[in-house]
């Protein structure tokens, strides 16, 4: 069986080089900023400190960031931030014991830390975008699945090439978990060939429709030959939930931590909302006169669109947006759907229209850039919404959420969320609901920070915005 051989060393080396460039870019930016502002800059002193920055790479390696596969983006962001912060603390310690601390600008060091915090994940993102489709990029996966059951999984791997994982080979299983080997090849010989060709590969087993005993037997066979084995559950809530192994008096268990039930974490989330939205509210006030002028000149009607939405605990609140539609939008929608069967089906499926006749000229620009959502900063400050969370729904959409509505009610809806950074209106309504559930099950402060960072390029690209 021809396999793409693993080139893990190449992937690690490229990520290492990316981190190294970012670690030097942060302090260089800080020094350039200080010199441009006319501050004192002992260049030779800073240059002599540069070799110490090489210690950041072992720090990242200790945190498991090379190659860092099978880690969620928010977990990688957390570990990169931790490694960078420890590195700068170590630099401060060296300055202290070397009695040179008074020679360094505290503002320059602080700027270098902040710049490096931003540069390392940014450089990694650019590196993955550049290398994702190179033949040498990635880590091999052997996919063990019943015949015909791996189609959607293969598509998911192709769509997530940046993750560094690719399917090197598919191994067919019978419904009872037996390997379907080529004619004349025994099961042991077939597994030996796989091990020889791809010994460092990750084995991925699709659980359904295999019985538990069959999976256990298969894992025992593969565990003799491969170091990493993952099993993909088909139970819906297990797929959505963040799990980790833990020890318990009754034996090993799968632990799930519901962070959204922790009052301390909720207060931290609220603090993050206010830290971002209070300054953003000042920006909103500065933009308001210009936005109001353009909206009123483009079409008659109010500047703001106000609508009742369903929020936390099922309570309704008034959501604010800049108006993007004509004044008689409901009538136009009724007439459009009555005259066009194709548009009516699109509306019934997603509650959105790709080419919406109700939008004004300035409204299309506001929708594409996401600026129509800016007034929701007021909703966040008032406590009706959060900066990150599920999109706020209207009462008519509750039935479409089904059982997932119970999860939706547990959190404040957000200005941005997984839906906005994962394709927006290009996703189906069912996919949007699934993303909302994933967010609630897996919430963490780092997930919020990751979504906020991802929102910026999503708005710039305008993908799925209509």
Number of domains: 3
Rg from alpha-carbon coordinates: 26 Å
Helix content: 40-55%
Shape: globular
> Biggest sheet: strands side by side, in what order?
2-1-3-4
Order of helices and strands: HHHHHEHEHEHEHEEHEEHHHHEHHEHHH
- Got a strand count? 10
Average residue-wise pLDDT: 83
Q: What is the structural class?
A: alpha/beta
Number of helices: 19
Which regions are unreliable across 5 or more consecutive residues at pLDDT < 50? none
Largest sheet: 4 strands, parallel
How much of the sequence is in beta strands?
5-15%
N- and C-termini, Cα separation = 47 Å
How would you characterize the overall build of this protein?
The longest helix has 36 residues, at 263-298. The chain is built from 19 helices and ten strands. α1 packs antiparallel against α5, α4 packs across α19 and α11 packs across α12 (341-350). The protein has three domains: 8-131, no CATH class; 139-234, Rossmann fold; 263-324 and 359-461, no CATH class. α8 links the parallel β3 and β4. 25% of the residues are buried. The radius of gyration is 26 Å and the shape is globular. Strands 2-1-3-4 form a four-stranded parallel β-sheet, with helices on both faces. Strands 5-6 form a two-stranded antiparallel sheet. With 466 residues, it is α/β, with parallel strands linked by helices.
